[in-house]
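Title: Request for sanity check on Aldehyde dehydrogenase family protein prediction

Description:
We are preparing a figure and want to confirm that the structure record we downloaded matches what your pipeline produces today. Could someone re-run it with the sequence below and paste the raw structure tokens into this thread? We only need the token string, no images.
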Amino acid sequence: MRTEMFIAGKWTGGSGATTATVDPATGEVIADIPEATPADVDAAVEAAATAFASPEWVDMPPARRAKLLLDVADQLERRADEFARLETLDQGQPLGVAARISVPNAVEHLRYFAGWVTKITGTTVPLSVPDVDYRSRREPIGVCALITPWNFPLMIAMWKLAPALATGNTVVIKPAEQTPLTTLLLAEVLEQAGMPAGVVNVVTGGPEVGKALVAHPRVAKISFTGSTSVGREIAADAGRALKRVSLELGGKAPSIITADADIDVVLAGNLIAGLGNSGQACAAATRFYVDRSRADEFAEKAAAAASAMRLGPGLDPSTRLGPLASLEHLRKVDAYVRIGEAEGAELLTGGRRAEGELANGYFYEPTVFAGVTQDMRIAREEIFGPVLSVLPYDDPDELAQLANDTEYGLSAYIWCNDIRAANRLARRIKAGTVLINLPPGLDAAAPWGGMKASGLGREMGWEAIEAYTEVKSIWTGLS
């Protein structure tokens, strides 16, 4: 297990202090990870800048770069079990999630964007200026700082890394300080696959390391996934420096359950949407708008099903919900539950830290509130934990207004037997992704990102190629 940073093709312990990464299922320290100093950040950025100008990378034929990404995908797939277990150990997600979602999705992204490498084209346009031949080129931006979160460390890192490399950029990755281990293992795979030195660098540490990357004058683009508050700061700094920026931020996804929906049928999909990864997902469904005639039925059945979900260590195959990622985050989630009670919401199940044999880990019981109103903080602010709120509605014509009454706009869910009505509603909801009669889903070909305070730009699909390239116009006089 690698615990050093990876800079300019070499492993280094850095010159600063260390931060412990902890197993959230036990509270025990897994390893001590270097806290990058400003000098370490500068060395990583300079290595990426040098690699960006090197013939080995700049002049690498597209077919060779595509093959390199495919080789990385093959190596990652061969070591899938190792990656999945390490992700579960460090982040806490059930092994089934890591093995069936996180690692395969990372492999899929590498192969998908490897396919784009040989297909990134410019255009020719007939100009009205006489005797001029015109064409455009898509070119890489330069050094990209990729700052990743702790909820899906490997998968979200690959959402950024695969298109950045496919388009010819070089990168410095900073994983979340709580969950750096699979990113460091990925650097080992990249090294073994023959990635040129300096093309991919990994620095570790806390928020100050991320700030140093954002501020570095040789970083041309920043891609960040995390909280809206931090995203606002990054956007402001990037705006002043005129750097390119992509942000995937918070969410408060509505799940709309219409009167004609079969509660028993839609319940499982809504629990996946709300409690997957213990609610630690920006796309988690947290506001359940249910027709008032069905709201009590839905709330009671959701509470019964949630309370039956087994909490436990992610490496236990019988576990349905793993721990929260850190003690600090557990305390934040619990504070919101206490706020919900104080605001008058009815706590149907959960609402406390797990006890007994799970007491040393960061486990929180799945929690369901009924009787929640639109003005309550638990209905408006991102909790990022296993806390579900049921909000009855009376008039279907109000649903779009209720769903949009938030600063966030990442994702939304509609459960409705009338597909025409569902699609009309989907058009009115302000969210980057709307899923109709489906739990959360991701595909490398489908653009992902948010509206409003949920972010700027898109990941995945052709939109990710655009996000990591700039267009150059070339005019040639013919007379």
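Thanks, this matches our download. The chain has 16 helices and 21 strands.
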